């Protein structure tokens, strides 16, 4: 805020002057009232690692094992395709965030460009995404801990509960503590993947023994090739891949608590496509070369499978600690992002008023407590369905992610349309190829959701449950629509 006014004073500036609302966009910036009270405590290195850590999490460290077992090496192609569309989405979000940083992020942008119904739907889809993702991630923590015999006597649900309580406590402190924790979580994840890739490449070049066989291209050619089960598994597994990329949009939320977001965000976002192809696509290809794709399972991280099979003492144990860190990082990010988005919705009247409360550390504890409370459902799922808990919630999270991404792309599409009419000005950092790329990406995401119907074991039941969620969202809209505050973006400040 270059006007030099304190945030709280500046927000009130436009509220008391209705004529102020009619000022042109040129040379002015929208300020979301839901951002009032936040402390811009995230630094450049935090944003870079949040962008990186958001795109690397449980979906790769655990989910890749499940999807390799079901679809084989073609998973690498699925990661590549979905990765391109994820980058298009985050580039569109980046343009909106550079124009107007907001902790409400895509909910705030949906309110501005689509309207209150759009903001409502976007917010609750994002809530669905992260509430189920938190469930999946605490499940992953519990599964990881059971790798060691020491934790065998401890029930899976209790381990999940402890993980949730730990990260919840961390999120109650100021945003700089979150940023610092996420920085080191992400650093550990990146280091682990780099080490895996280096060791895997060495094993392939030398033909080193890995488990009962040897690393090399024979693991690919002798086990059905790139598409051992045809094209359909690759398509049906795409939603799980989108789940893996869920979190890339969190960089937009973090922008609201970042000083100089217009300088920091472009660099963080532009480097994301390289990370996607190196870390995701590269890792999956190497996994299929060091071991047959059938060696991986849903119960163990593929990274642990490799290091446990390579014969280095305690290598599997060390990697297990790393993937455990990755899961905790994902839970950490989920509570952070959803708490901020819920607050934005609560200020607008679209979520319980409790979600708008903040503590002395400038943390929206109300929203974080709500999402953590729903995480207890994940604890219950781990109690009732310990063997299928991860897959059950992962698919639902994937639909929420796809819905959130579609909203971002639609908001950006409308923004571009307004800019072409001369009503708004696009920033220097923008998505080239819009709105054509917006349309193509939306069609792809809708296609992925529809393709779930052809998976009777997991996809079809998830869609049926999602149908009930949609009904609940419609009912909720009619319950809250009369108390929604229509002018949340009524403060226009001189820049």
From TrEMBL:
Any Gene Ontology CC annotation: plasma membrane
Basic and acidic residues bias locations: 19-30
Membrane topology qualifier: Multi-pass membrane protein
Organism in which the protein naturally occurs: Propionibacterium freudenreichii subsp. shermanii (strain ATCC 9614 / DSM 4902 / CIP 103027 / NCIMB 8099 / CIRM-BIA1)
Domain Amino acid permease/ SLC12A: 46-483
Membrane-traversing stretches: 47-64, 76-98, 119-145, 157-178, 190-211, 231-255, 276-298, 318-342, 363-385, 397-416, 436-454, 460-480
Cross-referenced Gene3D superfamilies: Amino acid/polyamine transporter I (1.20.1740.10)
GO biological process: amino acid transport; transmembrane transport
Subcellular locations according to the entry: Cell membrane
Family stated for the protein in its record: Belongs to the amino acid-polyamine-organocation (APC) superfamily. Amino acid transporter (AAT) (TC 2.A.3.1) family.
Positions of region (Disordered): 1-30
Official protein name in the record: Amino acid permease
Keywords, in A-Z order: Amino-acid transport, Cell membrane, Membrane, Transmembrane, Transmembrane helix, Transport
């Amino acid at each position: 805020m270059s006007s030099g006014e304190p945030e709280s004073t500046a927000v009130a500036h436009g509220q008391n002057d209705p004529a102020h609302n009619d000022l042109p966009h040129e040379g002015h910036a929208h300020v979301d009232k839901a951002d009032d009270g936040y402390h811009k405590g995230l630094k450049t290195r935090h944003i870079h690692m949040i962008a990186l850590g958001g795109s690397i999490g449980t979906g790769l460290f655990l989910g890749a094992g499940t999807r390799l077992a079901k679809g084989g090496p073609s998973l690498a192609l699925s990661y590549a395709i979905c990765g391109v569309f994820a980058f298009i989405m985050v580039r569109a979000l980046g343009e909106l965030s550079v124009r107007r940083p907001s902790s409400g992020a895509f909910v705030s942008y949906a309110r501005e460009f689509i309207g209150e119904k759009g903001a409502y739907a976007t917010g609750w889809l994002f809530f669905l995404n992260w509430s189920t993702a938190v469930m999946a991630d605490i499940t992953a923590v519990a599964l990881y801990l059971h790798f060691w015999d020491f934790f065998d006597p401890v029930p899976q649900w209790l381990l999940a509960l402890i993980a949730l309580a730990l990260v919840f406590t961390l999120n109650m402190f100021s945003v700089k503590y979150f940023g610092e924790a996420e920085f080191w979580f992400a650093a550990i994840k990146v280091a682990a993947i780099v080490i895996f890739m280096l060791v895997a490449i060495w094993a392939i070049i030398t033909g080193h023994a890995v488990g009962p066989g040897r690393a090399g291209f024979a693991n690919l050619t002798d086990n059905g090739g790139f598409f051992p089960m045809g094209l359909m598994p690759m398509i049906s597994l795409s939603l799980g891949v989108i789940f893996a990329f869920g979190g890339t949009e969190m960089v937009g939320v973090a922008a609201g608590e970042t000083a100089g977001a217009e300088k920091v965000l472009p660099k963080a976002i532009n480097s994301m496509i390289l990370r996607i192809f190196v870390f995701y696509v590269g890792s999956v290809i190497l996994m299929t070369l060091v071991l047959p794709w059938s060696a991986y399972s849903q119960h163990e991280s593929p990274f642990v499978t490799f290091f446990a099979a390579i014969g280095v003492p305690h290598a599997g144990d060390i990697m297990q600690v790393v993937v455990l860190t990755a899961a905790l990082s994902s839970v950490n990010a989920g509570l952070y992002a959803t708490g901020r988005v819920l607050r934005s919705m609560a200020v607008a009247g679209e979520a319980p008023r409790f979600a708008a409360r903040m503590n002395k550390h400038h943390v929206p504890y109300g929203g974080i407590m709500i999402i953590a409370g729903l995480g207890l459902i994940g604890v219950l799922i781990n109690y009732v369905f310990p063997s299928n808990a991860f897959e059950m919630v992962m698919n639902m999270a994937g639909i929420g992610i796809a819905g959130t991404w579609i909203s971002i792309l639609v908001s950006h599409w409308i923004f571009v349309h307004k800019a072409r009419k001369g009503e708004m000005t696009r920033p220097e950092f923008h998505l080239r190829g819009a709105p054509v790329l917006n349309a193509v990406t939306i069609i792809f995401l809708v296609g992925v959701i529809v393709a779930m119907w052809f998976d009777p074991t997991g996809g079809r039941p998830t869609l049926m449950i999602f149908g009930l969620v949609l009904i609940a969202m419609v009912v909720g809209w009619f319950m809250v629509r009369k108390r929604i505050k229509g002018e949340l973006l009524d403060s226009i400040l001189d820049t």
